[in-house]
Amino acid sequence: MTETHDFKSLDKWERKQLIIDTAVRIFHEKGYHAATLDDVAGRLGVTKAALYHYVSSKENLLSQIYIKALEGFFAYIYEIPSMELSPAEKMRTFIRRHLKSVVIENLAMFSVFFSEENQLPKEDFLKIREEKRKFTFVVEEIIQDGIDRGSFRRVNPKLTAYAVIGMCNWLYRWYKPESSLFTPDEIADHFVALLENGYVQPENPDHAATCNGKRTEDRGAVLERKRGLLGELRQNTDRIASLVEELNMIV
Length: 251
Known about the structure:
It is a single chain. This protein is an all-alpha fold. It has three domains: 7-55, Arc Repressor Mutant, subunit A; 70-197, Orthogonal Bundle (Tetracycline Repressor, domain 2), CATH 1.10.357; 204-251. It has eleven helices and no strands. The N and C termini lie far apart (121 Å). 18% of the residues are buried.
């Protein structure tokens, strides 16, 4: 099947974008190793020679896919730390954007991005790794800010960032838009709720209230007992001091 666009009627930038988008779909469908430049040219309805005006090799085409992904996947997150939002709202914004605007809306691109990284030339591979570190660090900063403000529990920011990003990224492995039982909004809301509330069923509210009340009463009783013993100790200390003084007076 060829693309519906008239390749020759597009300008150079549009042709390059169409080549990348077409390659993403083919690499996603067939896998990078099985796909060829002939497949891309055939889908576009052009000759392989014409394709070489825009890409020098399949490896170069893969690199161009990653460059485009970097511009789309990572650029948006760098805006979040400067937003006038609480740390919790920043984290919710990250999760929703990452799930809906990145993974779900660009499922084929995201799949290629995370499954074919080792096929990149070394220089491009190292660049991708550096961008991923920067990406993770931004999430770490949001978490650390939440800890510093007292709105997040004192967790390890790096491990928590890995956990949040990993849960969101893994969506590309199982989400099928055409057959999913859940809408993107439902998935995003569920992930946010799971991360914020966990999965352990809270205690019965009445039972928890009773236990909390009992703990409060126990603490009150302990404090009262300590005060009583301290008072007795002071009285006994005074009595002992008086006896010692009386003893010293006996000749």
